[in-house]
Design goal:
alpha/beta, 12 helices
């Protein structure tokens, strides 16, 4: 069976975990936490990084820092994971769902402004499959209407935005909005099993972010010798991750370039192998906007109908290949359907019904990708005779 995903181990994870344990500082904010945070700050130019237990926690921290209050409105794509909306629902916000583009699942930036009201507080673009949203347009809208921008970059580590105003300039995704939120779940390019990170790009929020991260205390300042004792000074929670988790992640950070090279190679084999099916109109392949780079987080195809996707999933499973669909539109979820304003979001529903993700992980062999491509060709050949 070719699994949809297999977490990659670089070989250093247990060695670093052992070092963390032997340091006798295995709670949060230990030596490996600092190593990871410094790695991301240096490599991507992030202003301040704080490791969290998940991307959900990072989003919840961002919601607190943005001072989201009951009655505030937050614009979120409907085609995304529940955490993108949940973090703001927990603060009492009303979620205003936006549709995707017709040719890619990212939030349609051209439709955001029509959703803004006097109650709108923030926009949360999700960089689906690690491909950038139109951040120039989103940041311009946010600046004009005095809104916070919180990038859900869960899938977007090592992905960049190409600045249209300065063509030679690239910006790491997660570094453009006021906050960026990343995931290191086992399905991501680099992983710690569960894990995440909040990126704070606006220096005004750094001190409070550390306090919220440390259960509402100024404990971080105490350890840096800035205060002679620490206490409870704000709201917060235990958002920081264990240094054992950080030790695992740091081993992955050290091999990021190798991991990315392999994933991009596999992605390209998929694309070239399935392009003939797109040319015949049987499937659609990922569209990479001119302002985006490809971090090879995911390879997906878009089938013509829900029924055809279901048949293809079953066909591949019968041939030892695990392929999976992705999100169900949040505006139609059991929890939020009654709260939605009734607007149709056809492209979100389209991707919910027709998008299919194919196996993509470090240990996957090129020959296995070619086998998957071959079976997809076989499916359409047999069903279109």
């Amino acid at each position: 069976m070719i699994d949809f995903n297999r977490p990659h181990l670089t070989g250093k994870e247990t060695e670093y975990i052992k070092q963390a344990v032997e340091s006798k500082k295995i709670s949060g904010n230990g030596i490996f936490t600092k190593h990871c945070q410094q790695f991301f700050e240096k490599r991507y130019g992030f202003t301040k990084c704080l490791l969290t237990t998940s991307c959900t926690d990072a989003l919840e921290m961002a919601a607190i820092l943005a001072d989201i209050q009951p009655g505030d409105e937050v614009i979120v794509p409907s085609f995304t994971f529940v955490s993108t909306a949940l973090a703001f629902v927990r603060q009492g916000a009303k979620i205003v769902f936006a549709d995707s583009y017709s040719d890619n699942p990212n939030i349609d930036a051209d439709k955001i402004e029509s959703l803004i009201t006097s109650k709108t507080k923030a926009i949360v673009p999700v960089h689906y499959a690690g491909l950038a949203c139109d951040m120039d347009k989103i940041m311009e809208i946010a600046e004009q209407h005095h809104l916070w921008v919180i990038e859900d970059a869960a899938q977007a580590i090592d992905a960049y935005y190409l600045d249209s105003k300065h063509e030679s300039t690239t910006k790491a995704l997660g570094s453009i909005g006021h906050f960026g939120c990343f995931s290191f779940h086992e399905t991501k390019n680099i992983t710690s099993g569960e894990g995440g990170m909040l990126v704070v790009n606006d220096e005004r929020f750094i001190r409070r972010a550390e306090i919220i991260w440390e259960k509402g205390t100024n404990r971080s300042e105490f350890f840096r010798g800035k205060v002679n004792k620490y206490g409870w000074v704000d709201t917060g929670s235990s958002f920081l991750s264990s240094d054992i988790t950080a030790a695992f992640l740091f081993a992955q950070c050290e091999k990021l370039d190798d991991i990315q090279t392999k994933r991009k190679t596999l992605w390209q084999v998929y694309y070239e192998g399935l392009l003939p099916l797109q040319n015949k109109g049987y499937v659609k392949l990922p569209v990479i906007p001119t302002y985006a780079t490809n971090n090879a987080h995911m390879f997906y195809i878009i089938c013509r109908t829900l029924e055809e996707r279901t048949d293809l999933i079953n066909y591949l499973k019968g041939n030892g290949i695990e392929a999976v669909f992705h999100y169900l539109s949040l505006h139609k979820s059991e929890y939020y359907a009654a709260k939605h304003d009734g607007r149709e979001l056809p492209y979100s529903d389209y991707y919910s019904d027709c998008l299919l993700r194919l196996p993509l992980f470090y240990e996957l062999k090129i020959e296995e990708v070619k086998q998957i491509v071959h079976e997809i060709h076989n499916f359409f050949h047999k069903n279109l005779k």
